[in-house]
């Protein structure tokens, strides 16, 4: 079956479960429903029960007289947690991001939402839209990278997909939980402009574009006040200034005092003061809320509003009637879900190096597959071990796998079609690996590094990685194999950047990330050329010391206390590629970097300022010999009147499938909000009315061969096309040449093209091109 046909089937299966209603309509229904609630009932609606000892990770009591069945909340961003192998174990969010494909992101959200819906789960605890500040941070694989615009775009598609299925998407973690060490006893000290333009930015998109029904607060403090108790963040900014109409829940045991209720938190999850069965029914909230109301500390209106917000979100989602009963063990491992995971896994592979067109595999008789990461995975609780191939990181963001397709099995199966012999060494043993590799035509070394959530320590890593080195002697294994086989390829499974001292010693490098259950099939599809790689890095890859910030490894402090690890966000706006541009540092691989088995050329850049934003057009041509997908990217330099600002900001992209020799025009709109900056003095976003924007276009943050300018007032200057380097204020940004590769165009079971008709099923093109946001 062609993959485009598979996706069409998926689109037909995951139709909206209810007709969407507006927030105003949901509010009217919720007010009527809540009118006769007692305070005791309102408190039960907002205080978790069972303290995570029940079937669901979070639960709310039923109210029988109202016909209210109660609520089930369940992790997470990679699919349904604790499903005992009955649900799809999806790829990590960072892999979804690496596709740079809005259609696939929407379809993943739809498929995941459908799996939650069939189980009677009201709230999916996803997506995560944190920012990747430091590459060693433990949970970077649960979100979408370093750029706030792009993180918001990814999160928007996933939220829309989940909520189209009648399930509430819980966008998290609000805000500044960007590292794991002492997350519940830390403060993220964020400058005001960076708070608005970097860390709040994805949530703004999810509130205003995706209409997310729920948001989860974070464990940490922001500027000294814990987010769950931070009235400025939860009430003044999120609810009042952003206009959020949904409800805000705590992270699990992420509120530390009853003060959180007065600050604007609407639901206490999972209800107890601390972890464990001893705290079932022992809450900071519960009956204490009524006591505080009686004492005049809290108002009746605050309780009314919290309960109303929960019920309003349920009406908005269409859940107040005919919602399925809770059953976490409905089997949803369908052919469509398996195919979609394989498709996203393949499209998220990032080809980092391909000297002498060593890939795709062709004209060889014997392949050596080396490394324990190529072998079947050991399934341990919450993936608290790294034993065998790495499909996801550890913690609450992982799933219960029924299976993982290991690379060795998939490569062996695929090689039979071409009568290629496969030999292997399934241990991280340099001597054994070299012995197997020396007589092979091609050697593929699988290596890994892992990370996760701070409540689990794996091989000395308490969530955050201790370093960026490969685990289990990966560098030594690669060196040994490369020394005996000139055609060595490295495949890396990891949450993010790793050190690559071997880069000049091998011919090919593929970054596979954390692809989920179809991992082996996904990498085999790319290695053999059945899928032309089209993944791009959603972050900057560099040595650890080149980044502007890092995680800390301080002793553990009590959660919610006065003693905090201090994370100063001194880099301000200059996160990721913005920092590297400012400092003139050449990264190992730029934001957006990713090679293909073909080559692309960009031309005919034009930009016109219109009432709804900046309209950009350019032409993309496939200049190679095989079909492939290009990702044209748009970066903007703001007018000079905006001081102390990044030299360029990522503001637009598309993904375009092109046959060999084919050209297509791409149209991208940068809306008025993304043409604005946060004016700290005015306390609002401002779109410059003077000066000119410079528009850059190309394939990644360091390969931008096209440039034009447009006046902020709407008048247009003549465009200019530049080759080679792009001037970056004082610094020069080197163009990275894409490698050329010829490959036979295979349209096997998994097809890399997503047809336009499929895109129509998942992405509202008009909404993408005509968004006009308020400037708050």
What is the element layout, followed by pairings?
Elements: H1 3-13, H2 23-34, H3 39-46, E1 58-60, E2 71-75, H4 93-98, H5 102-118, E3 123-125, H6 148-163, E4 168-174, E5 186-189, H7 192-199, H8 201-208, E6 214-217, E7 221-222, E8 225-226, H9 231-241, E9 247-249, H10 259-263, H11 287-294, H12 300-317, H13 335-347, E10 350-354, E11 366-370, H14 407-417, E12 421-425, H15 430-437, E13 442-448, H16 474-482, E14 488-493, E15 508-511, H17 519-527, E16 565-568, H18 577-583, E17 600-610, E18 613-622, E19 628-630, E20 633-637, E21 649-653, E22 656-658, E23 663-671, E24 677-679, E25 684-686, E26 692-698, E27 706-711, E28 720-721, E29 726-728, E30 731-733, H19 756-762, H20 765-769
Parallel strand pairs: 2-3, 3-4, 4-6, 5-7, 5-16, 6-9, 11-12, 11-13, 13-14, 14-15
Antiparallel strand pairs: 1-2, 7-8, 10-15, 17-18, 18-23, 19-22, 20-21, 20-26, 24-25, 26-27, 27-28, 29-30
Helix pairs in contact: 1-13, 1-19, 2-12, 3-12, 5-6, 5-13, 6-8, 13-17, 14-17, 15-16
